[in-house]
Design a protein that fits this description.
The complex is a heterodimer of chains A (122) and B (466). Chain A is an alpha+beta fold. In chain A, 30% of the residues lie in helices and 20% in strands. Chain A is built from four helices and four strands, in the order H-E-H-H-H-E-E-E. The longest helix of chain A is centred in the C-terminal third of the chain and has 13 residues, at 78-90. In chain B, 24% of the residues lie in helices and 24% in strands. In chain B, helix 1 (21-33) crosses helix 7 and helix 7 (203-212) crosses helix 8 (230-237). The N and C termini of chain B lie far apart (72 Å). The chains are: A alpha+beta (122), B alpha/beta (466).
Chain lengths: 122, 466
């Protein structure tokens, strides 16, 4: 699971109202090198909840030197875009789980794939 | 009368392939729309014809369309046309010489092809037709192997293979610009794909869907019924980043029984990510997840540029969703033993589409498109059955016949309005928003149609009928 995806996920446990962001508990994390695409990163930044991204990076010990708030004029800051590219797409949770912050329900991540299925009545 | 015609009033000819006929016009329109160009044609336009004249475009527009289309075979700068060879000749003599000149230079090489639709010509007749064009000021040398410029004489002998006329109905002559992407149908064939399933979408249709959805490079595309990822493969070919979800754990993880004839179990490299790797687009893979499409996981402000999907019809793969229900359906056989497959209940076909449209209304960017297949029981079909939503505008509805009594329709919708709270309940207020009545009605009708064919009167009862 990449952090771009995690940033858009929320807990859908019945009755939960404060299910975002899901807490990441990772037991295996991989960092892959991926072709940098400034255009794509720039397009994704406005879609992100920045503080949730920073929080997720911290949970994975990958916050490095990401600023705690979005910098203005980021489209032209290649160094910044490369950092965002890395955290959004290159860092992957391979094993672990996502936990609903309100209900505590855990969703396993196995081989990089989160299993978000709820059981009957949840 | 010869009138000076600048770049702006050039005419182009598209030669289209003769399959998926209904899907062609929406595809070309969508690709032109990616360039903000309108579809503008002649008064004699016939959608069923393999030859379309286009105007109000630049050569770059044409090249751009051809770089994406799988319906278009080739494109030409139209120099002349007519219903007889005399008319063609007159038309060509009227075409401004200064527009021809750059391609007929003395030090250039060229060749002329002859293409006849619905007729086969012997070699000497093709040569005769080429020779008949010698009134044109060709100054270069013929090079059949690797010419700088290619010209084409195209003749339309109609659409009835049992009644081929002596003379063509229409003749065109033009300078070849570019071919379409029909080669992708072969190079992306599911026969050669690493990971397939029972319902993997064939390559041609996957690309048509990506085009109908106006998918472009750096888009974020989502498929909520991703299966083996065929649609994501096509979208990633056009440079989009892709993600998908599916309720089936085994399919997402690429484990379990294989769909190939001579293969028993899936191999280790069979999953959606591996498919993208096969075609060199692994860097565009975002994520896939195991999830129930009826219970979306996305935060309110999460938005995708396009949603491209093939929801289950309830025939080869049954429609399922999680939840408690009186009728417990046996969970599918689980090879790995470790995945927990919660109790499934019948996901009514009407709910799938109402949910899908509602999801699209909330999670598409404004102007983004939803493209999906709608299964149809033909004897009862009427246009009103196509689900609507106040935030989505219907762009196209193309039928692919599956059998005498069933077909599926490729529906394309564009988000034209942000949803307000009142829209969420619209499907309850207006019957047009849930045209599917009854329980899994499509599945029942599909099977009842089959048993009637076998001469039995009894209606088939699918296993998970309520």
């Amino acid at each position: 699971m990449k952090l771009l995806t995690h940033n858009m996920l929320t807990s859908h446990v019945k009755g939960v109202t404060k299910g975002y962001p899901l807490i990441i508990k990772a037991t295996e994390v991989k960092v892959n090198e991926l072709e940098f695409n400034a255009q794509f990163v720039s397009r994704m930044i406005p879609k992100l909840e920045w503080s949730a991204l920073i929080q997720a990076a911290e949970w994975l010990g990958q916050s490095q030197d990401l600023p705690s708030a979005l910098i203005p004029d980021y489209e032209n800051d290649e160094e910044f875009l490369r950092k965002v590219h890395r955290i959004l797409l290159e860092v992957e949770v391979i094993e672990g789980c996502l936990q609903c912050p309100e209900s505590g329900r855990e969703f396993p991540i196995s081989k990089g794939v989160p299993n978000m299925l709820l059981n009957e009545g949840e | 009368m010869a009138v000076y015609c600048g770049r702006a009033c050039r005419k182009y000819l598209l030669h289209l392939a003769h399959d998926n006929v209904d899907f062609r016009l929406p595809e070309i329109k969508a690709l032109l729309s990616l360039r903000n160009r309108p579809f503008d044609t002649s008064e004699t336009f016939s959608e069923k014809s393999p030859f379309w004249q286009l105007k109000g475009l630049s050569e770059d527009d044409i090249r751009s369309v051809m770089s994406r289309t799988v319906c278009g075979k080739s494109s030409f700068e139209l120099w002349g046309h007519g219903t007889t060879t005399d008319e063609l000749r007159t038309s060509l003599l009227e075409y401004p010489a200064e527009n021809m000149a750059p391609y007929l230079q003395q030090n250039s090489t060229y060749k002329i092809n002859v293409y006849t639709f619905n007729k086969t010509l012997v070699f000497k007749d093709r040569i005769k037709k080429i020779d008949a064009l010698d009134f044109l000021p060709f100054k270069g040398t013929v090079n059949l192997k690797d010419p700088e410029h290619i010209f084409c004489l195209l003749e339309d002998y109609g659409s009835d293979p049992n009644d081929i006329p002596e003379e063509p109905f229409h003749i065109f002559f033009g300078r070849w610009i570019a071919d379409g992407q029909r080669e992708l149908i072969r190079s992306y064939s599911v026969k050669k794909r690493h990971f397939i399933g029972n319902t993997s979408m064939d390559a041609g249709l996957s690309f048509i869907m990506a085009n109908h959805a106006k998918v472009k490079a750096d888009d974020l595309v989502y498929d909520p019924f991703v299966g083996t990822g065929s649609l994501l493969v096509a979208c990633s070919h056009f440079g989009a980043y892709v993600c998908g979800t599916d309720i089936d754990y085994n399919t997402i993880h690429g484990i379990g029984k294989a769909s190939r004839k001579n293969q028993k179990w899936r191999g280790p490299d069979e999953n959606i990510r591996a498919n993208l790797r096969q075609y060199g687009t692994e860097s565009l893979y975002v994520d896939v997840m195991v999830s129930d499409a009826s219970k979306p996981l996305w935060r309110k402000t999460a938005q995708f540029d396009a949603i491209v999907t093939d929801p289950p019809y309830g025939i080869r793969e049954s429609t399922r969703r999680t939840g408690s229900h009186k009728d417990i359906i046996k969970p599918p056989e689980d090879f790995s033993g470790e995945s927990h497959v919660p109790v499934s209940m019948a996901y009514h076909l009407s709910d799938i589409f109402a949910d899908l449209l509602n999801f699209a209304a909330h999670h598409l960017v404004l102007g983004g498109r939803l493209v999906y297949w709608l299964p149809i029981y033909r004897p009862e079909y009427c246009e009103e059955m196509v689900p609507l939503h106040p935030c989505l505008t219907l762009i196209s509805n193309c039928e692919q016949t599956l059998s005498s009594h069933t077909s599926r329709r490729l529906i394309t919708m564009e988000k034209t309005k942000e949803p307000e709270d009142s829209d969420r309940l619209s499907h309850l207020a207006d019957p047009r928003f849930t045209p599917y009545q009854g329980h899994n009605s499509f599945r029942e009708k599909y099977f009842s149609g089959l048993t009637k064919k076998n001469g039995k009167d009894a209606k088939a009862t699918p296993k998970n009928k309520e």
